[in-house]
From TrEMBL:
CRISPR system ring nuclease SSO1393-like domain span: 13-57
Alphabetical keyword list: Coiled coil
Record-given protein name: CRISPR-associated protein
Coiled-coil residue spans: 305-339
InterPro entries: SSO1393-like
């Protein structure tokens, strides 16, 4: 298995499987592996002097069936064995009519319990499902904020490229470059890169077949290895590769684009509503402040008016007191001065004797 899962060996050498003739039960199992990896098997029948070739039949492994059963297999892997009913319940979108499709992934061990079959164990062991793709900075900069249909298709290829099973079924070699090319069937988008330490490095991304044929011959593995790379976690919904029908894929991508547009529009509307609510809240706060100021000013006016009235009352009282005091003084003065005093005073002033 180490040779089959080593992408460097797969793309540099012609690997041939050799099931031992003495263990006939191994032959179909190894032949299935040959189909999965596109490798031929050979063996010698008893005393024959000529090799018997078992070429990989033109069958493809339905990766989508496998993707649906992965949660159930991981459930078994965590507990060693689970109830058969629980196994089928963990399969995504499972129906009773599909039972024969999923029996090859398990083996019964008694009391209606099942465990992982050797085939499923091999498939799980060669997966790299939890890894993030390693992508050149140029490709990330080009696709990160692009929501067009070609960009969605390329992001989907990038996400799927970390899985050796999927990558093996969607890889091809082009005679004008030593880079590995990955593509979805019946689509124009392609990736080009290389394998290092069993990880696929996405060096270049091509949106159309014309660009791919024009530009790919300019690149090789040496140039690609000089690029700057980083792990890229693609968190957005770019869909899954569940069909090789180009029209269905394009229709699905168009729906994804429309869905993303609606999500962004809803988000914008929510922000506008939040801003309007905030504006209304601010206006309400401002009105409350103004009302409070009006109340305070009104109270101040009332207090001032009351104070002025009090001052007026005091002034009137003081005025009346002063008038009364003046009248009393005038009255006292008249009593002190005799009646002939002013007549004599007037006479003296006029010069009389």
């Amino acid at each position: 298995m180490a040779y089959l899962t080593d992408d460097n060996l797969n793309y540099q050498y012609d690997l041939i499987l050799n099931p031992t003739g003495g263990y006939k039960g191994v032959i179909p199992f190894v032949t299935v592996l040959g189909m999965l990896y596109g490798k031929r098997s050979v063996y010698i029948f008893e005393h024959a002097e000529q090799l018997i070739n078992l070429p990989p039949l033109p069958f493809s492994f339905d990766i989508d069936i496998y993707n649906r059963v992965v949660p159930a297999l991981k459930r078994i892997d965590e507990q060693t064995a689970i109830a058969e009913q629980e196994y089928y319940a963990c399969i995504i979108d499972y129906t009773e009519q599909e039972k024969p499709l999923f029996t090859s992934f398990i083996e019964p061990i008694g009391d209606n319990m099942v465990t992982i079959s050797p085939l499923a164990e091999v498939l799980l062991s060669i997966e790299n499902r939890n890894s993030y793709p390693i992508v050149s900075q140029n490709v990330i900069d080009e696709l990160q904020y692009d929501n067009t249909q070609p960009a969605l298709a390329l992001k989907r290829l990038i996400k799927n490229s970390v899985n050796p099973l999927w990558r093996n079924q969607h890889s091809e070699k082009w005679h004008e470059t030593n880079l590995i090319v990955i593509k979805q069937n019946a689509t124009a988008e392609r990736l080009a890169g290389f394998v290092k330490n069993n990880a696929f490095y996405v060096a270049y991304a091509f949106r159309t077949h014309e660009i791919y044929e024009r530009d790919l011959p300019k690149y090789d593995e040496k140039m690609a290895k000089n690029l700057k790379y980083q792990q890229w976690e693609i968190t957005e919904n770019v869909g899954k590769s569940q069909s090789n029908d180009m029209d269905l894929l394009r229709e699905r991508d168009q729906l994804l684009i429309e869905n993303r547009y609606l999500i962004e529009k809803i988000k914008t509307l929510e922000e506008v509503m939040d801003n309007n609510d905030l504006d209304k809240l601010e206006e309400k706060d401002q009105l409350e402040v103004l009302n409070q100021k009006i109340i305070e000013l009104s109270q101040c006016i009332v207090d001032t008016k009351l104070e002025l009235e009090q001052q007026k009352t005091h002034a009137e009282i003081n005025y009346q007191a002063l008038e009364k005091q003046l009248a009393e003084q005038q009255k006292s003065t008249k009593k002190l001065i005799s009646k002939g005093f002013f007549s004599r005073l007037f006479y003296v002033v006029k010069g009389g004797r």
